[in-house]
Design goal:
The protein is an alpha/beta fold and 192 residues long. It has a domain of 131 residues: P-loop containing nucleotide triphosphate hydrolases (Rossmann fold), CATH 3.40.50.300. Helix content is 24%, strand content 26%. The strands form four sheets. Strands 5-2-6-7-1-8 form a six-stranded parallel β-sheet, with helices on both faces. It has a two-stranded antiparallel sheet with strand order 3-4. Strands 9-10 form a two-stranded antiparallel sheet. Bound molecules: zinc ion (ZN). The site of zinc ion (ZN) has 8 residues, from helix 5.
Length: 192
């Protein structure tokens, strides 16, 4: 079984995963992972918004997880899964053949509303997807988008600073029609 918690930043994806973790009484059969590329809170899965955390192992690829999986493992958690490298087929193998429950947390879209790196593949192989909504920074309604209010330098930034959740109405207002059209309708060379 593969279940993915997704949604914008500050929606409580990690908190939802930690709540699932806490409900499991015998923790001896749980493995938690996080990509090394996310240098925030090394060695733990942490929700800053809710100030809760669980210990985790840093990995770079899905394949690396196989080194830690033994016959004891029944449940696996991976946070910030959008930043993982390798093949999601490893997750299918763990779920189908090893009969492990896999819980994943990750951002579905960038702050430009593009599918986030590994996430389209992760969502495609998930048995269950829970889209968690944040609260709109501007109006307080349900927010499904992330917006960056600072100057962007790198293609993919890791961290929380400068990112706010917005509903689509407030996103359209902040972005403006011209910029939105330029951003969303630009030609993509890498899509077949
Ligand atoms: Zn709003």
């Amino acid at each position: 079984m593969i279940k993915t918690f997704t949604g914008p930043m500050h929606s409580g994806k990690t908190a939802a995963m930690i709540a699932t973790y806490k409900k499991i009484w015998n923790k001896d059969h749980i493995l938690c992972f996080k990509p090394n590329i996310d240098t925030r809170d090394i060695g733990e899965i942490r929700s800053k918004d809710y100030d809760i955390s669980i210990p985790s192992i840093g990995v770079d690829t899905f394949e690396e997880i196989l080194n830690y999986v033994d016959d004891k493992a029944r449940t696996i958690f991976i946070d910030e899964v959008q930043l993982m490298k390798g093949s999601v087929n490893v997750l299918s193998y763990l779920s189908i053949i090893k009969d492990i429950d896999v819980y994943l947390g990750g951002l579905n879209m960038t702050s430009e509303q593009e599918p986030f790196l590994m996430m389209p593949y992760v969502l495609a192989i998930s048995d269950e997807i829970e889209v968690i909504k944040a609260s709109c920074f501007d109006c307080g309604r349900d927010a499904t988008h992330t917006y960056y209010i600072g100057e962007k330098t790198e293609k993919v930034r890791v961290g929380d600073e400068g990112y706010i959740p917005l509903c689509r109405r407030c996103l359209a207002k902040r972005r403006g029609e011209l910029e939105a059209k330029k951003l969303y309708l630009r030609k993509k060379e890498n899509i077949n």
